Amino acid sequence: MKNIILLVSILGLAACGDNLNGLRPDAREHQDGPPGPDAPPGQPDADTTPDADTGTSTVTVAAGACPGTPDHTLAAVSGMAWQFDGGASTQVQTITIAAGENIEFTTTGMHNFASVLQTGSLSWRSGDPVSGGQTACLTFTAAGGPAAFHCEVHAIMTGTLTVTP
Ligand SMILES: [Cu+2]
C-alpha cells in the first residue's frame, strides 16, 4: 500500500511538471502584443510574425537646410543614385546613424527620400518629388530600424536606414 501511494505521488508530480511546461512562455513569442496561446512543449507557437509597428513617427522633417552643420548629408544625384556623407554614388545605400542626429537631404532633380512604410515609429518623407529639387532636414530622434527607404519616383533608388541608440 505504501508503494502505491509513493507511485501516485510521483505520477502526480510528473503531470504537474508538464502543466508548468505548457505555461512557460515560448522564446519566439513577441513581447509587444498580447501573448498568443502557447503550443504544446516542443512545438513552435503559431504566432511567430512580428507585430505591426503602430507607433507614431519619431522622425521630424523640416523644409530647408539643417541649422548649423548637419550631422549627415544625403544627396539624390544624377544617375538615379544616392550619395551619403559625400561618399560613393550608389543606387542602393545602407545608412547607419545615431539617435538624435539629423540628415540634410538635397537634390536638384525630381527625387525624394522616404521610408517605404509610411506608418510606424521609423517613417518619414522628405517631401513631394518636384522638378527643381528640394532640401529638407530630417531628425531621427529615436533608435530603430533597419527601415527600408526609397525615392518614390525611381524604384531602383532604395536603401536601408538604421538608427542606433
Ligand atoms: Cu529618384
Structure characterization notes:
There is one protein chain. This protein is of the alpha+beta class and 165 residues long. The chain folds into two domains: 48 residues, no CATH class; 106 residues, Sandwich (Immunoglobulin-like), CATH 2.60.40. A six-stranded mixed β-sheet has the order 1-8-6-2-3-4, with no helix packed on it. The protein has a four-stranded mixed β-sheet with strand order 5-10-9-7, with no helix packed on it. β2 and β3 form a beta hairpin. The longest helix is centred in the first third of the chain and has 22 residues. It is elongated and about 60 Å long. The protein starts with a helix and ends with a strand. About 8% of the residues have low confidence. It binds copper (II) ion. The site of copper (II) ion has 7 residues, from loops.
Strand % is 25-35%
Instruction: Give the N-to-C terminal Cα separation.
Output: 65 Å
Kindly report the CATH topology of the largest domain.
Answer: Immunoglobulin-like
Rg from C-alpha positions? Answer: 25 Å
Number of strands: 10
Quick one: CATH superfamily of the largest domain?
Answer: Cupredoxins -  blue copper proteins
Based on Cα principal axes, name the global outline: elongated
CATH architecture assignment of the largest domain: Sandwich
Helical residues, percent = 10-25%
Going by helix content, strand content and strand pairing, the class is alpha+beta
What number of structural domains do the residues give?
Answer: 2
Low-confidence stretches: 4-17
- Give a list of the ligands: copper (II) ion
Q: Indicate the multimeric state.
A: single chain
